[in-house]
Amino acid sequence: MGRMMMFRFVNNPRRLFYIILLTCCLYGVILVLRTALDGNFEDLERSLQLFFDFSTFLLYHCDQLFRHVGQVCRHPVLPVYAPEMMKFIKKVDKFHCSSEKNWVEVNGSTAVITDQAKALNGEIECSFTDINRNNEYTTSDGLTTSTHTQYNLEASDFVKVYCKSDNGNYWNSNLAGIRHSEEIVDRIGWDQVPADALGLSVVMWGMDSISRNNFIRKLPRTYKFLTEVLGALVLEGYNIVGDGTPQALIPILTGSTELELPETRKRKGSKATYVDIYPFIWNDFRANGYVTGYVEDQPSIGTFTYRLKGFNKAPVDHYGRSFYLAAESQWHNDKRCLGSLECHKIMLQYTENLMSVYRDKPHFMLSFFAQLSHDDVNIVGTIDDDLHEWFVGVHERGFLNDTLLIVFSDHGPRFADIRQTIQGKQEERLPFFSFVFPPWFKQKHPEAYQNFLTNTKRLTTPFDIHATLKHVINFPTKFRENSLSNRSMSLFNKIPLARSCAHAQIEAHWCACLDWDILNPGDSIVQDGAKEFVKFLNNYTQPERKMCAELSLNEVIWSARLRPNQKLLAFHHSSDPDGFKPDLSGSQRATIEMLQIKLRTSPGNGLYEVSMSHNLLTGTYNIRIQDVSRINKYGNAAHCIMDSNQDLRKYCFCKELPPVS
Ligand SMILES: [Zn+2]
After folding, report:
1. Are strands 170-176 and 628-630 parallel, antiparallel or unpaired?
2. Which one of 7, 38, 426, 597 is most buried, by most CB atoms within 10 A?
3. Element (H, E) at 354
């Protein structure tokens, strides 16, 4: 749709509404027909439900909403330190691994016997045995090489190391680095990327089960550094689209849902294929001059191997799974340590080694860390210092000058006790997701940057990340607002204010946007709220009562209630092994709702719009001055305090008439 056309429709909400409704009906019919024709009746029910949610939403709300609100999806304001959540939050002491430092360290592609180990133990001889990938579940030993100095990784990224010293001590472990491969080096390069590429490597550092709020609570130093020093853009309206890790990573990496892609579930036996068939984004990067890497730390619950059949061939140039398979029996301290290295440092070092070996070459790396955050909301706090130090390190070494760094999580905590609280449920749906661009990006692409910044406050989803990554490979030259009919919206283009969960194809029980419930202006909740607001305004102008008239309520023009949707409140857990079907047997009720009221005061005919929270248990209203907008001109009605108390000008109607000019 052209810009002019779009403009006309936005200005005419009723017409836009009917156009959208028609499009949706068509879409719904196609979706249902397609699913039925595929003979996939298990999924037919879901398609129907999604379509139903979508239409219901539009029928009852869109027309009203377009007229009255800026942004259709309002995410709840969730206090980071809400008492409801702080019940689950406690400080956990840091842990340390073996005090005997590893005898061998990996630097890029080279494993080196350390001087410190030699100083402590005398002459050391180490044997290095390459770890080769057989398949997703087994590895085999490659050649063994013995040396007194160093070993260059070539056959594999991963080696088993056994060392003994002259004084009879010995040490062994498994190590990870980035093998040197002529085949890769010949294939990649900035001269191979498309002419319209953004010219950035992409490094994605993901951690399982961390909501945006929990990132701020448990990783405060890292958060501060990312946002204040690196200027990270944090997506505040990033909403999950399904249950668990695969339903986050599959849309990010392929732009589709698992159900839309070919069958890969293990339990479907011979009907299922390997996930190699998925159109992974790393294939696009690889085909466009990039080296690719992907590592996850928990092979027993791997994103693509737990329920799904996994990869037949290694999906990327540097695939970390074999390392973790081979290391399974060597972990100690509750699987947190391998030799003297803490589990998070192993993955951080592997990631950094890739960034360092391919420093001047385009690289795409996805590292996904779960060991310390998957099962516990607090333990991840123990790595804040190390994580912070790592980001400082890659920043100071200049690695981020030509890299798009994405620090993210797949979903918030899903532990049973937290899921029983409303805020816990909302946080589960709002994971941490952030982007760090090099400083030059903002200067070189001001419009794209500005759009991105705007989008941090809009409803965004994993599908959008996919569209954004595509744009890294082919960067647009013109920026236009995303079309509401697109499920995947690049974050370099503006996301429409009108986007709802239905547009974004987020099922209601996953949708954290608050439900708008249009209220009758005469409703006692609205009238009481409006009177509270006028009282609040009068208190605000009280110090200037000699000059500012006391206001009274003239009329309520419009009002709506915002609260978590019923399906979110009723969501208990997923009731099928794939996490597709919700059990909606819960009976939670919202205790706090947001009210939005548009009203007129007199004297002076001031038009105000205010958002306030209404506590349903105590019947009290909470109003903050920053949530009050004056929406008509106050002109010179506030002339009497213009010089003495400018802050009051939107709220003061002077008793005295303005001087005639
Ligand atoms: Zn997860």
Report:
1. unpaired
2. 597
3. helix 343-357
Q: How far apart are CA 14 and CA 63, in angstroms?
A: 6
Which helix (DSSP H) or strand (DSSP E) does residue 144 occupy? strand 139-147
* Number of residues written out for the chain: 661
Report pLDDT for 159: 98
Q: What distance in angstroms lies between residue 386's CA and the mean position of ligand 1's atoms? A: 22
C-alpha 248 to ligand 1 mean position (Å): 8
523 three-class SS: coil
Find all residues with CB under 8 Å of 301, minimum gap 6, and list them. 370, 374
Distance CA 564, CA 357 (A): 48
- Measured in Å, residue 374 CA sits from the centre of ligand 1 at 7
Helix, coil or strand: residue 318 = strand
Spell out where 168-307 has E strands. Answer: 170-176, 201-207, 233-234, 291-296
Distance in Å, CA 462 to ligand 1 centroid: 13
CA of residue 148 to ligand 1 center, whole Å: 42
Strands 552-563 and 515-519: antiparallel
Angle at 158 between CA 156 and CA 160, to 5 degrees: 120
The residue type found at 424 is: G
Of 249, 215, 261, 264, nearest to 235 (Cα)? Answer: 215
Please tell me whether the overall predicted TM-score, pTM, comes out greater than 0.90 for this model: no
Cα distance between residue 534 and residue 551, in whole Å: 7
d(CA 400, CA 500): 34
Element (H, E) at 126: strand 124-133
The DSSP 8-state label assigned to residue 257 in this structure reads: -
Residue-wise pLDDT tens digits, 375-428: 999 999 999 999 999 999 999 999 999 999 999 999 999 877 888 888 999 999
Radius of gyration, alpha carbons of the chain: 28
Listed in sequence order, the residues at least 6 apart from 251 whose beta carbon sits closer than 8 Å to its beta carbon are 241, 257, 461, 462, 463, 465, 466
The span from the CA of 567 to the CA of 323, in Å, is 42
What residues sit around ligand 1, an ion, with C-beta below 5 angstroms?
208, 245, 410
Quote the pLDDT of residue 44.
Answer: 56
Question: 74-120, pLDDT tens digit by residue?
Answer: 898 889 998 889 999 999 999 999 889 999 999 999 999 999 999 99
**Which residue, chain included where needed, has tokens 């799904």?**
308
Residue 69 has a pLDDT of: 65
Q: Strand pairing partners for 130? A: 159
Place of tokens 């991963």: 158
Q: What are the structure tokens assigned to 91, written together?
A: 């400080």
pLDDT of residue 587: 75
C-alpha 243 to ligand 1 mean position (Å): 8
Kindly give the distance from the C-alpha atom of residue 98 to the centroid of ligand 1, in angstroms, as a whole number: 29
Q: For residue 520, how many other CB atoms are within 10 A of its CB?
A: 11
Backbone angles phi, psi at 62, to 5 degrees: -55, -50
> What local confidence, expressed as pLDDT, does residue 255 receive?
98
How far is residue 290 CA from its own chain's centroid?
24
CA of 236 to the centre of ligand 1 (A): 19
191 C-alpha vs ligand 1 centroid, how far in Å? 37
* CA–centroid distance, residue 209 to ligand 1 (Å): 5
Residue 370 CA to ligand 1 center (angstroms) comes to 8
The pair of structure tokens assigned to 583 is: 């059990």
Q: With 80 as the cut, is the pLDDT of residue 604 above it? A: yes
